[in-house]
């Protein structure tokens, strides 16, 4: 088996997506967390956009961009997470293409500088959830995006549905309740062990610390006691 090294910032959802795919495929990998504010030279040399995730394979090839990494892992390691049917596969890819837009709409409120910007950002969330609610309705019964079988779409959305949950606990958003399919999907994905790179009791305080340190509108709603220690 090849040696996989996944280079990461601890709370990066795009890294989490790649880690989920590795876990779904039962692949052993080294998880190496680097400091966002002090990216080492060896990392800068293998990451064209200076971003994580990077997946280094046998120290010979370095893949970047979470979608490309997920697709590569799916092509090379069983079990196949993409559907066999080409039409379904195209539909799945269309929805993983929507992920960056979804991510920005659902988690944009975490970056708002003031109350007005925050309100504007949370007004986007129902639009993103409505798109997914429609997609889930078309896809069928659940519990996963394609039904009974877990897919790359599930791996892609899980980190961002988790971020929604975190944000909802910092300052209640109350949006997901209006989208029962998205809500049910999120619940199933958050219960799935592969979603989690760290114990949940550690990860949420870490996320909160990031929000607090950002010193923007939302930071004031994070209680000191609810953040991870430095
Ligand atoms: N499209 C990229 C996004 C990756 C990304 O934005 N990573 C963030 C951390 S969560 C990053 O490395 N940011 C550093 C920077 O922008 O300089 C992917 O899917 O892998």
What are its keywords?
10 helices; globular; alpha+beta; Glutaredoxin; 230 residues; binds glutathione
What's the helix and strand layout?
Elements: E1 4-8, H1 13-24, E2 30-33, H2 41-46, E3 54-57, E4 61-64, H3 66-76, H4 86-97, H5 99-107, H6 115-122, H7 125-139, H8 152-170, H9 180-191, H10 200-214
Parallel strand pairs: 1-2
Antiparallel strand pairs: 1-3, 3-4
Glutathione is lined by residues 9, 12, 14, 50-53, 65-67.
What does this structure look like?
The protein starts with a strand and ends in a 16-residue tail after the last helix. A hairpin with a 3-residue loop joins strand 3 and strand 4. By secondary structure, the chain is an alpha+beta fold. The protein contains ten helices and four strands, in the order βαβαββαααααααα. Helix 1 crosses helix 8, helix 4 (86-97) packs parallel to helix 8 (152-170) and helix 5 packs across helix 7 (125-139). The model has no long low-confidence stretch (mean pLDDT 96). The longest helix is centred in the last third of the chain and has 19 residues, at 152-170. The chain folds into two domains: 4-76, Glutaredoxin, CATH 3.40.30; 86-195, Glutathione S-transferase Yfyf (Class Pi), Chain A, domain 2, CATH 1.20.1050.10. The structure holds glutathione. Glutathione binds at residues 9, 12, 14, 50-53, 65-67.
């Amino acid at each position: 088996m090849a040696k996989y090294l996944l280079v990461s910032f601890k709370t990066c959802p795009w890294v989490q997506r790649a880690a989920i795919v590795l876990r779904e495929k039962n692949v052993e990998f080294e998880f190496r967390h680097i400091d966002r504010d002090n990216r080492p030279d060896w990392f800068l040399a293998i990451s064209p956009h200076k971003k994580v995730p990077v997946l280094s394979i046998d120290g010979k090839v370095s893949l970047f961009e979470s979608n490309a990494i997920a697709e590569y892992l799916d092509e090379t390691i069983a079990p196949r997470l993409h559907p066999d049917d080409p039409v379904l596969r195209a539909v799945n890819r269309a929805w993983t293409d929507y992920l960056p837009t979804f991510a920005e709409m659902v988690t944009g409120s975490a970056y708002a500088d003031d109350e007005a910007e925050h309100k504007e950002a949370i007004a986007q969330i129902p639009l993103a959830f409505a798109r997914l609610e429609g997609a889930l309705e078309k896809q069928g019964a659940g519990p996963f995006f394609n039904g009974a079988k877990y897919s790359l779409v599930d791996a892609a959305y899980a980190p961002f549905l988790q971020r929604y949950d975190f944000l909802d606990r910092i300052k209640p958003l109350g949006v997901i309740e209006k989208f029962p399919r998205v809500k049910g999907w999120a619940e199933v994905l958050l219960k799935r062990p592969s979603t989690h790179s760290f114990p949940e009791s550690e990860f949420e305080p870490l996320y909160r610390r990031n929000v607090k340190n950002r010193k923007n509108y939302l930071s004031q709603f994070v209680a000191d006691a609810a953040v991870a220690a430095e």
